[in-house]
Every structure is written in structure tokens, then in C-alpha cells.
Amino acid sequence: MSKNTVWFEVGENETLASCLERMKTQGYMAVGRKEEPVFQEVNGEPVPVRQIVKFKGVKIEK
Known about the structure:
Blueprint: E1 5-9, H1 16-25, E2 28-42, E3 45-59
Antiparallel strand pairs: 1-3, 2-3
């Protein structure tokens, strides 16, 4: 993977806006987004617990 592209995961107690701001301060701009469900097994059944959101960031050219 190129250092010009990095995936940033939104923290469990972080807002989408604060994650985007963190990316910006590190010199990256969001160009993509993906979500991954997190499941927990309850009574033998998978139950969605939360959603992991990741932003694909590319290095901002100066």
C-alpha cells in the first residue's frame, strides 16, 4: 500500500466530523468510506453490536 493512501478508523467515542478533522490535520483528504458490522454471539445467533466506519484518505498535495 502506498503511503499516499491510508485508512482512518472512526473511534468508538469519536464523531465522523472529528475523524475527518483528524485526517485533515495529518494532511489527508477523505476519498472513500466503508462500514463493517461488528457482531456478538447471543444464544448461538450473531447479533449486530455496532458499525465500524473507516475513511480512505489520500495525501493532500501541497
